[in-house]
Each structure stands twice: as C-alpha cells, then as structure tokens.
Amino acid sequence: MISYFGNKIASDLFHKGESNKIPRQYWKRAIHLLEVMDAVDSLEDLKKSGFPPSVRLHPLAHDRKGTWAIDIHKTSGWRITFAFENNEFINVKVEDYH
Fold this sequence. Notes:
Layout: H1 8-16, H2 27-39, H3 43-48, E1 58-59, E2 68-71, E3 78-85, E4 88-96
Antiparallel strand pairs: 1-2, 2-3, 3-4
C-alpha cells in the first residue's frame, strides 16, 4: 500500500491519471505500477505483479541508500522511487534522476 507520495508527479499520476511533468508516453506504465504498488504489501508481491517487461526492482546506493527504484521505461531515466517500511511504500516519487 502507498502511504504517501514524495512528489507532485507521482500524486498527480495516481489521483488524476496525468501529469504534464512526465512525457505522456510513460503515463500508462507509471499509473499501472503505482496501482500495483498500492495493491500489494511486500516487495516480493511487487516483483510478481509487475507490468511486462519486469519491474526491474532494485535498491539504490550511496546517498540514496534505503531507497528502491522501479524502471518506468528501461532506456529512459524515468523511475518510481520509494522507501519500504512496515509493509508500506513511503515517499513515492516519479522522477528522472539520471
């Protein structure tokens, strides 16, 4: 379950189905992944429930240690990033951090 969003892009995609801050071509996959995140309560369930191709769930390192990422599109830099605590996704963001 998503506990709270860390940026407006993620919140807008989840609640409104759109955001002018991310290219339209990524909306469908991003929205689907956010919906899956809200429906599951473990990282393992998230891996199993992803939208093809795989969600490529991976931990981040260095100054982002403790944060996880999912690729929205493998060749773009757009990711959903989040922390996972007590079976909840927290500080969920849609961002291009590369």
